[in-house]
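Example record

Each entry pairs one chain with its bound ligand, zinc ion.
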Amino acid sequence: MNVLGIESSCDETAAAVWLGDHLASNIIASQDVHHRFGGVVPELASRAHIQHILPTVESALSKANLDKHDLDGIAVTYGPGLAGSLLVGLNFAKAMALALRKPFVGVHHIEGHVLSNSVLAAGPVPPFISLVVSGGHTQLMLVKEWGHYQILGRTRDDAVGEAFDKVARMLNLPYPGGPAIEKLAQGGQASYVRFPEGKIKDNELDFSFSGLKTAVLYYLHSLSEDERIEHRADIAASFQEAAIGALAAKSLRALENHHIGQLALAGGVACNGTLRNKLTALSAAHGFKLFYPPPLLCTDNAAMIAKAGLFYLQRNMTSDFSLSPRPTLPLEQNNPFSQNAKCDARVEHKSENSS
Ligand code: KG4
Ligand code: ZN
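C-alpha cells for the complex follow.
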C-alpha cells in the first residue's frame, strides 16, 4: 500500500510517504518563529502550518516519486495536540481524500510515536513496553498486540520534555530546552545536587516532574548570582540525572512487573544520549532488549503517522468526514473509525494496583 502520512499536532509540519514496503520520503518543516518566545505560540503555529502544509506534502510526494493518484490512502494525526494545528492537517487530509476519492484514517499521535521504532527497522515485537517521552507526553504502556495497549503509567503533571524546557528557561538556555540542557550538562557534575525524582504513592509507574522543576527553581534562588553562573552546568547535569533516573527506574519496574523482555523508547526526549546510555547499561545488566528510533523519528514526524495509518488502512479501518480534531485525546478514547469500520483496536487503562 502507498500511504501519505500528515502530522501537524504541534510546531512541526510534516509529510511522509510509505511506498509499498518502505519509507520513501520524510519531510519536516520546523517552525523557527516560536524560538524567541521560549515555547510554542498556538496561533503562530496554526498560521505556519497553513503556509507549510502544501509545499511539505508536495515535496514528500515528489521525493517519493509518487503521483498523488497512486496513493492508496492518507493517514493524519487527529489528536492530541493544539486545536488549530490539528485542524490544518486534518482538513488538508480530508480535502485531499475527497478530491482524490481515497480513504483516509485519523491517527492518535501517541500511537504514531509507538510505531516510530518500526519505520526503518523490524522494531520490537509485541508484547513489549513502550516509554513515550516528549514535550507533551510521558507515558509507559504495555503493547500487547499492535493496536492493543495497556496504559501502565503517565505523568500526573508536567511531561518530562516540558520539564527540560522549563528548567532550560531558568538557566537562560534557548527553546527547545532538552538539547540545550543535554549539551550544557556534559560539562557538569550530575552528583552536584540531589534533586527529587518524584515519587507517586498510589501508582508506582506514574510520573511527576513538577516537584523536580520547583526544586531546581528554589535551588537557583538560594544561590548568589556568581554561584548560579559558576554551577550552571552542574545544575543542568543534576536535573537531567533526576529526570532520567525516574524514567529509567519506572521503565525497569514495568518490564519486571509484566515479565517483558523488550523496551521501546519514543518521543523527543528519546534523543537524549544520557537516557539512551543509562537504559543501554540497564539492558545489559538486566537482560532486556532496548529499541530507540534515530533522532529524526524521535521528534514529531509523519513517517510514524504513515506507518500507524498503514496498519488500519490495510484492515479497511478508515475515518469519515465527520472526524474532528481532538486536542485532548487519551489513547484509551482513540476511535477515529467510521461506524461501519470493524474496530479491532483496544486500549485498556489499568493502574498497576488494579491489574
Ligand atoms: O516529540 P516532540 O518533538 O514533540 C512533542 O510531541 O512534544 O518532543 C519535543 C520535546 C521538547 O520538550 C524537547 O525539549 C525534548 O523533546 N527534547 C529533548 C532532547 N531533544 C528534544 N529532551 C532531552 N534531551 C534531548 N536531547
Ligand atoms: Zn510528539
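Residues 181 and 236 are 6 Å apart (CA to CA).
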